[in-house]
Design goal:
The protein is α/β, with parallel strands linked by helices. The protein has one domain. The relative contact order is 0.13. Helix content is 33%, strand content 23%. Helix 8 packs antiparallel against helix 9 and helix 9 runs antiparallel to helix 10. The mean pLDDT is 92.
Length: 317
């Protein structure tokens, strides 16, 4: 729930729904297990979600009427064909690239070598995001999320055209070569920078302590092995500069709580004639109202929390 949305949301507003004329925001969910990921799980308006996971038995999560979610049981890669996947002892940690067991043995067993040791290698069908779009399997995406265990770079290589229609990318990546031959975080950031995406937020989701003789030191700092990064555009791609794409971009920025950035972006879209003067004014007015409502709600919650803590203290004393 790290990216849990704060309501009200621009994407659920009457203004957004009217001006986008019913065109649902489209998400690519690479590595789709379980429920729809945050913060999109909080959205009330219709969403088009195309979920990729080669495991036909992967948990699909709860189907909701507002979400048109369909699954493609192929591995995301840079091209259509087949790829060899190293199936690990813990299947959820399986990867196209083989595990680096020497490095993994320097970490605790529950995240290291025992869980990630390859038990078999299987060949599975692969597809690129661009080819899925070209084949009519999914619409051009507005947002791409990738959590596919070391194959994220190749999936982005296979999304060259789709990145032009996308405003954001949420991607898990590795800072250390947990899998031999994999691309690391710096390479992914460089790749996305070259295509107009820049880092807005990074979440440290894999801090692993080193172990010596099977034990780690309680006061030792963990090594930052993996992170999840949010990349957004500062502007629309020139080939995708239209009103609906602009409103989708504003909705994504606000959904991830970059409300002030959304206001600035709306002004830039006005300068570029993507939004007209009246619509930009309505959008900015709505975004300002949303910011005020969130602040009012947050202050109220903080007030009641303080009251509750003070009440508990008085009762205990």
């Amino acid at each position: 729930m790290y990216y849990a949305a704060r309501k009200p949301l621009f994407i659920d507003s009457d203004l957004y729904l009217k001006q986008t004329q019913g065109r649902a925001l489209t998400l690519i969910d690479g590595g789709a297990r379980g429920e729809l990921f945050d913060p999109f799980s909080a959205v009330a308006c219709p969403l088009e979600v195309v979920a990729f996971d080669p495991d036909v038995d992967a948990p699909k999560g709860t189907q909701k009427e507002r979400v048109r979610r369909h699954f493609i049981n192929k591995a995301l890669w840079k091209e259509t064909g087949t790829v060899k996947v190293h199936i690990a002892h813990q299947p959820a940690t399986s990867s196209v690239y083989p595990p680096d067991l020497e490095l993994l043995r320097t970490f605790p067993d529950h995240v290291g070598a025992p869980q990630r040791t390859t038990e078999k290698v299987v060949e599975i069908e692969s597809i690129s995001i661009d080819e899925a779009v070209d084949q009519g399997l999914c619409p051009s995406p507005d947002f791409i999320k990738l959590d596919i265990h070391s194959a994220e770079f190749e999936a982005l290589q296979g999304a060259e055209n789709s990145l032009r229609t996308s405003f954001g990318v949420l991607v898990e990546s590795w800072h250390s070569p947990i899998h031999r031959g994999q691309h690391l975080t710096g390479e992914l950031e460089w790749f996305l920078n070259q295509r107009g995406f820049f880092l807005f937020h990074i979440m440290h989701n894999s801090p692993w302590p080193h172990v010596v003789d099977g034990k780690n030191l309680e006061l030792d700092r963990p090594r930052m092995v993996g992170t999840e990064s949010l990349f957004l555009r500062d502007d629309l791609h020139p080939s995708n500069s239209n009103q609906v794409a602009g409103l989708h971009a504003l909705a994504i920025a606000d959904l991830f709580r970059y409300n002030r950035f959304a206001v600035l972006l709306s002004r830039k879209l006005l300068e570029q004639k993507v939004l007209d003067t009246d619509l930009q004014w309505e959008v900015e007015k709505k975004l300002n109202w949303i910011a005020e409502e969130r602040l009012r709600s947050t202050r109220a919650i903080r007030f009641f929390k303080r009251r509750f803590r003070n009440l508990v203290r008085r009762m205990l004393s």
